[in-house]
Amino acid sequence: MSSHPPYPYGPGGYGDPSQAPPPGFNVGYNQNQPPIMYQPGPVPGPEYGGYPGGAVAPAPAVAPVMTAVGVPPGLEYLTQIDQILIHQKIELLEAFIGFETNNQYEIKNSLGQKIYKAKEKNDCCTRNCCGSLRSFDMKIKDNSDREVIRLIRPCRCVSCWCPCCLQEMEVQAPPGTTIGYVKQDWHPFLPRFSIQGANKETVMKLEGPCFACNCCGDVNFELKGKHDDKPIGRISKQWSGLLKEVFTDTDNFGIQFPLDMDVKMKAVLMGACFLIDFMFFEKVGEANQRSTVFS
């Protein structure tokens, strides 16, 4: 059991970004949060007796969430939370022989209940030849297996030596309707990103450390306002343990944002998390993962 103190809460419903979050973001962190209305959808699994091996069930299907004005269908649940956990699933083929497969993720709430699932869509040649710089589409589906978000990443450079063609990701919700972009900003040694709206206007900034390597600790990318250096949230790559970090490609992330943030921007931050994963924490075959913008 972690010895870290509970993650403190400040105004706005999110944690104090000046303090590092403990692993797992301390499930059940906000006791004053109103009851959560889960998104509708069938819940697979046994009808009685729970799930085998103590697994956490997906968010239960109860009364549908009322559709809010301006909220893309399927994202209503995001209006009620200020924290997301993203867990990459272990691919046995990839772990044992190093053959790169499509990445798959489970997206959970603070209670560990699955609220979405994400899967990369790509071909074998692109995955194994282009490595972590590969282009891809990623489909994010809810518990009803309905696609609610699509992420589109073109093939771009990542090094600070190529400032004219840096990383970018388009976020659509529903698929076909662009709600925002994540764009890498040039900087000689820091990983920096602009969180943009549908018209490519910058809404927020995201900044990571000079050396993005989680050697026995978390790596934090701080979320800040457009003209303000005060952190309002963060994306954290969480330390998964020595064996998983060395021998597998699985990653765990936590995303924190203000509770009252535009739900579309919450979805764009999910896209930013996946882009950061591929840029700095994706290992393909014998190639080492990138840890700076120099490489």
Number of helices: 4
Instruction: State Rg.
Output: 18 Å
Helix content: 10-25%
Q: What is the succession of H and E elements?
A: EHEEHEEEEEEEEHEH
Distance between termini? 37 Å
Note the quaternary state here: single chain
Class from secondary-structure proportions: alpha+beta
Mean pLDDT: 76
* Global morphology: globular
Let me know the largest β-sheet: 12 strands, antiparallel, barrel
- Beta strands, count: 12
Strand content: 25-35%
Task: State the strand order across the main sheet.
Answer: 1-2-3-4-5-6-7-8-9-10-11-12
Unreliable residue stretches: 1-15, 20-36, 43-51, 61-66
Explain what the structure shows.
There is one protein chain. The protein is an alpha+beta fold and 295 residues long. It contains 4 helices and 12 strands; from the N terminus they run E-H-E-E-H-E-E-E-E-E-E-E-E-H-E-H. Strands 1-2-3-4-5-6-7-8-9-10-11-12 form a 12-stranded antiparallel β-barrel. The longest helix has 18 residues, at 263-280.
Q: Which tags fit this structure?
A:
single chain, 295 residues, alpha+beta, 4 helices, 13% helix, disordered N terminus
Q: Briefly, what is this?
A:
The protein has 295 residues and is of the alpha+beta class. It is built from four helices and twelve strands; from the N terminus they run βαββαββββββββαβα. The protein has helices spanning 92-97, 124-130, 242-247, 263-280; strands at 83-88, 104-108, 114-121, 136-141, 147-153, 168-172, 178-185, 192-197, 202-207, 219-225, 231-238, 252-256.
